[in-house]
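Lab notebook page, bench 4
Experiment: in silico fold of construct C2
Operator: M.H.
Input chain length: 72 residues
Purpose: comparison with the prior construct
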Amino acid sequence: MVTITIDYGSCEGCGTCEALCPDVFKLDGEKAVVLKEGGSDSCNLEEVVQSCPTESIKVEGMDIKFVRKAPF
C-alpha cells in the first residue's frame, strides 16, 4: 500500500505536484495538500517526488530514490 505525505515545514507551495498530478495534490493557500493518500493510477508519483524542489513529498510503499538534478 502506498502512503503519500508532505512535509509542510519545507513545502514552498510552488504547485509543481498539483500541475503533474491534480487528482492527488492541490494547493491550499501557500502549501500543497494530499487529496488521495493512496495515489492514483493516472499520475507518476516518482516524477512528482523527483520534481519537488524542496523534497517535501514522501511516498511510503514505493522504492523511489531522489536524484537531484544539476542546475543549468
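Observations: Strands lie at 3-6, 25-28, 31-34, 57-60. The mean pLDDT is 88.
Next step: discuss at group meeting.
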